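Example for tutorial group B:
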């Protein structure tokens, strides 16, 4: 029993890594389309979410309409 406990402690210590904070905000990309009911709901949800801390200062929302040529290129770069 002690052997398994020591192995467990070793694995926890060896595998757990500390999380480091990032100095820059997280970029959140939203690709949306005009007339899409899911997109309308998501935009409303994100607008409300980003009014609260810690999201207000830690997240930058970048929205791209998929019907625009520049937006398509950004989307293709992600895929």
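The residue assignment follows.
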């Amino acid at each position: 029993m002690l052997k398994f406990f020591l192995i467990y402690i070793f694995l926890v210590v060896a595998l757990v890594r500390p999380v480091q904070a990032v100095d820059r905000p997280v970029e959140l990309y939203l690709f949306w389309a005009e007339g899409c009911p899911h997109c309308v709901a998501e935009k409303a949800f994100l607008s409300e979410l980003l009014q609260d801390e810690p999201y207000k200062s830690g997240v930058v929302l970048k929205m791209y309409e998929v019907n625009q040529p520049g937006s398509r290129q950004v989307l293709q770069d992600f895929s």
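The chain has a mean pLDDT of 79. Compare this with the pattern of hydrophobic and polar residues in the output above.
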